[in-house]
Amino acid sequence: xxxxxxxxxxxxxxxxxxxxxxxxxxxxxxxxxxxxxxxxxxxxxxxxxxxxxxxxxxxxxxxxxxxxxxxxxxxxxxxxxxxxxxxxxxxxxxxxxxxxxxxxxxxxxxxxxxxxxxxxxxxxxxxxxxxxxxxxxxxxxxxxxxxxxxxxxxxxxxxxxxxxxxxxxxxxxxxxxxxxxxxxx
Length: 185
Fold this sequence. Notes:
Blueprint (H helix, E strand, L loop, with lengths): L1 H18 L3 H8 L3 H8 L7 H11 L3 H6 L18 E3 L4 E5 L9 E8 L16 E8 L1 E6 L2 E6 L3 E5 L4 E5 L5 E8 L1
Antiparallel strand pairs: 1-2, 2-3, 3-9, 4-7, 4-9, 5-6, 5-8
């Protein structure tokens, strides 16, 4: 995971260099302090998928280029075989597997998200992003915090919501939760 964070940081730094941007300019796009943003570039701090997507949209590249160093190439269709999508492990507990990374100009981001249970977890990281999101639980049970509400979703349950509302989740029980996350602006 540390190596992946460093690689993402290097790609962010490279983007700034190519576009002749300051760290403060990029930090402002995602609402972070320049110091916090520089720690991300150094591979010392995590960056959310949401913030990577904000940077990608702002500067006209794909989020996959920042996450995986791969630009999409397919135009007619893109197939992902079971377990073969490009993935990034944001933290030890969260793994994102992209299902659309190879399709040029995709209009939505689709991931299989795997989250390990965190015994004694009391704080849930919440984020928000423009648009809407659809989640379908494939395995396990998750506790979703959305706005001021707490919603339990079990295998087979789904939810569609306004993703500008702060949201976050936890895996419940001793089993990881795996869910399909579909975001669109």
